[in-house]
Amino acid sequence: MPVTILAIESSCDDTSAAVISDGLLLSNVTASQSVHEAYGGVVPELASRAHQQNIVPVVDTALKQAGVTTHDLSAIAVTLGPGLMGSLLVGVSFAKGLALSLGIPFIETNHLQGHILAHFIQKAGEEPRPTPPYPFLCLLVSGGNSQIVKVKAYNEMEILGQTIDDAAGEALDKCAKIMNLGYPGGPIIDRMARKGNPTAFSFAKPHVAGLDYSFSGLKTSLLYFLRKQMQADADFIAHHANDIAASFEKTVVDILMQKLQLAVKQTGIKHVALSGGVSANTALRQAFIEKSQKAGWHIYIPPFSYTTDNAAMIAITAHHKYLDGEFCSIDKPPYAKVCV
Ligand code: KG4
Question: Which of 172, 173, 338 has the most ligand 1 atoms within 8 A of CB, as the residue to mutate?
């Protein structure tokens, strides 16, 4: 009998469900929440209410697309954390209830581990993608995290450096918010930056020792810059929006790449992967590819559908855990902060 797992992800503002069978992905369905656009950021209470509305149809569609019923399932997996507590509670309660009612094991996964293991997702019926060999380095960049991780095995990861304040995605989202461009800011800045000049303006870069990141000073630098320019020209943002977006984005990418290069130098590991929502960014992908060509890195970039939050990455993580018999007690509560 095949090992078939239903995985659920609800840690932030995407409700996602995926079905994996014997390590091959059969379905991956995600409902995004547009309700937050009006607020320029995720509103936690609205996110959990939207998850409650989405969870049943999303799971139902994932099962149907996979061609399985709940009776074919070997286990139920879910993101236990980190994330927004109200959002996590919806997916976790649903997953626990389903596992209990079906009498099958419950598997908990870490959201960040999932982002990294997205590189191992293989879709049923598709040509296998090259996967990174252990150990490899992973630049994990999302809305809430910026980390350089040494991945020694699927369940053994060492954080070599991480942000001491804002995350890279948060910096891009805030840049868009300050400029009144919309939400989520990352994809908007990405689109505008492609039409702008990345060297038109310069912003402050942090001086943080070692492999840690900092992005909050950059945000302040943008605020001061805009205030000063707008005192002289009230329409400054409207006239230079693409150039500002391109210059700000370039600074974020430069900061990310500089520490990543240092990590490669310090560890001697040349298999390097990108993960998380910001890994969808055009300029970051380009800088990553250029660096690999110059420095002889072997690089791994996830398909766009596995960069932002998705349950396929939870499903592949759960598949490994199932094979190792790593099941979780139904009593274990979700957690908001990183606790790995
Ligand atoms: O991984 P993710 O979906 O959620 C978290 O786990 O945080 O990442 C969301 C982040 C947001 O900050 C969003 O603006 C950013 O990823 N993002 C992008 C792009 N697409 C999503 N940032 C830059 N360029 C993009 N194309």
Answer: 172
